[in-house]
Amino acid sequence: MSDEDTLESVSHFLVDPYGDFIKSENVPIIEGYSVDCLDIELGHWDRMGVDGAYVLLTGRGDYCDGYVVEMGPGGQTKPQRHLYDAVYYCLAGRGACAIETPEGRKYSFEFGPHATFGIPLNAHYQLFNGSGSEPCRLGAVTTAPIVLNFFHNVNFVFDNDFVFPERFGKEHHYQGEGEFLPVRPGRHQWETNLVPDLTSFELPEWKERGAGGKNIMFTLADSPMHLHISEFGVGTYKKGHRHNAGANIFLVSGSGYSLLWQEGDDPLDTVKVDWKPGVFFAPPDGPTYHQHFNTSAEPARYYVLGLSGSRYPVLPSRMRQERFRVTDRSVKEGGNQIEYQDEDPRILERFEAECLKAGSQSKMREFLKQYGR
Asked: What is d(CA 301, CA 233) in angstroms, rounded to the nearest whole number?
């Protein structure tokens, strides 16, 4: 017997409660750098009562997972409750969500394509598809891996009576309303439980990331999850940047690609992720540099979900980054961003060629003039 076989047979070494749990659910487990969540095979998920699949991205990090559920016409999930945070994003179709407070009061709201909503921690909730002819497909990002591995007790996580009344928010948060909490560009927050449409939500400017970009952070259900939506214009691309693994990204609108590379790699000869609405991907650990490019004829938006947000940084690395603002600072100054004047000039050439291939036109040279290029 090999050492590897011996280790796998030992029940008290390298135990993975989360991994064991999702295998026991008997639904597909899909892995990769990127996954088209609108075009994956699902299987019946008994706990949820509908079809679904786990989607475990290469760069998802240690704390979060992803999954997809689909309710058929007129279908609904079984009632759910769990001691981990969950944020849903509507990939296709329309539905409704019912959430019950500790006092027995129920909040319900409808949602459509590109809506996102947070489930208050350990709340009873249920999802419904009100259409009699069309399915409703949702993607979700949760903190289940760290919670299940920490407690390693399924009953404690899924059958716990403790309530978190502060997580339920205000009544108008379930009607798509919320509060704007100013911080600084790139860190402004919107507090709510429901955002009805990520494609039309008004975003403040975030010039620091380049090319006329826009951005806002979401705090959904007072969660410690990191959530933000970013937009960049037609024929433009963002500045290259890096951070630790854990940014699970849904492409919301537009089409284009992202480049992923490590320090010292050729950025044009590593990993290229092509994207369109429904694609789900995550830059892997390293930290890995990544850069997003819009080759479509409409503004591109992407929705980032992970652990450790601006309100509740949770992780020491996030606290340090926010304290010293290294995310938006040039790598030459100890930050994590590659300024346009410092990027490989072939990146622009590649982008212009990709725009031509897509039938669009690059506008980057207009932006780059202010950087002396």
From this structure: 9
The span from the CA of 124 to the CA of 129, in Å, is 18
CA gap 71, 126 in Å, rounded: 11
Closest Cα to residue 299, out of 367, 357, 238, 353? Answer: 238
How many Å apart are CA 71 and CA 370, to the nearest integer? 50
Residue 241's nearest CA partner among 315, 307, 326 is 326
- Angle formed by the axes of helices 144-151 and 17-24, nearest 10°: 110
Residue 120: strand, helix, or coil? coil
Q: What pLDDT, in 10s, does the model give residues 90-140?
A: 999 999 999 998 888 899 999 999 999 999 999 999 999 989 999 999 999
Residue 233, phi then psi, degrees to nearest 5: -75, 175
Q: How far apart are CA 336 and CA 327, in angstroms?
A: 5
Dump strand ranges (E) for 112-235. 116-119, 124-128, 136-142, 179-181, 189-192, 194-195, 214-220, 225-232
What is the Cα–Cα distance from 282 to 289, expressed in whole angstroms? 11
